[in-house]
Amino acid sequence: MRLHSLVIPVYGNAEGIDALIAAVRRLADALGGDLEAVFVVDGSPDDSLARLREALPGAGLDAQLVALARNFGAFAAIRAGLGLARGQAIAVMAADLQEPPELVLAFFEALRADRCDVAFGQRTARVDPGASKFASRVFWGLYRRLVMPDVPSGGVDIFGLSARFRDELLRLGESNSSLLAQLFWLGGRRLFVPYARRAREHGVSAWTLRKKLRYLADSVFAFTDLPVRLLTVIGAVGLAAATAAGVMVIAARLGGVIDVPGYAATILAVMFFGALNTLGIGLVGTY
Fold first, then answer.
1. Exposed, middle or buried, 45 (CB in 10 Å: 0-12/13-18/19+)?
2. Rounded to whole angstroms, how far apart are CA atoms 210 and 206?
3. What is the largest CA-CA distance in the chain?
4. What are the strands, taking DSSP E only, across 15-101?
5. Could you state, in chain order, the average pLDDT of each consecutive group of 10 residues for the chain (287 residues)?
């Protein structure tokens, strides 16, 4: 049984396959050959799968190559790779090599020494366009505020974990969720390894704004009831405001200020039942 396993999700990385395999080989050499690499091709539209099939037999690596039936997303690909990994210490690395591969060695060292159950790479700097940096700050700021306050401000992309912690993670079988939030939700002993993110050398990021927003929505709905609680609060405040406004409308009607037939009853019905409906939806959502 291997002591170390490395899971690598692959999507749109055909141009960088040679560099990726070379980086994995250097990691294997640094670990004395005790490394199993699990490449998971996540329905990639380019020829990443073909290039891996051609290159891996002669790469001198203990490797598994998995091809998913379609593009399920990076986290589904990672979960598939984690399920196949046979090592006692398991790390996840991005195929674009924007995160230094040497982080994997730091993860393995900490896991072997039993200093943590899960180790995260914590970004301290990134070489990206200004718009990308701004979008990342906004995304992770909302993520920390709405979902998981323990997540580092720069976010997390790669991590390592023990086989025991992996088993606990895979027991959480939600399909529309956040693997990252699940890792933090499970607790355990954590270790953060700082690093500077590199510039992308090949291809373009598949992490589009649409995917980020969907990921944020899945994370919010799976890990916090904040939207439901907000709805309940808005309904309660609206109901109180409708009651106060209703008293004013009745007083105005009795005082002759409002003389339009049916106005008072219409306004009272709309305000009261609208607020009551919002409050009811919030309460039902809570249950």
1. exposed
2. 10
3. 92
4. 36-41, 62-67, 89-92
5. 89 91 95 95 92 93 94 89 95 90 94 95 71 72 78 81 95 77 89 81 63 72 75 82 79 76 75 78 72
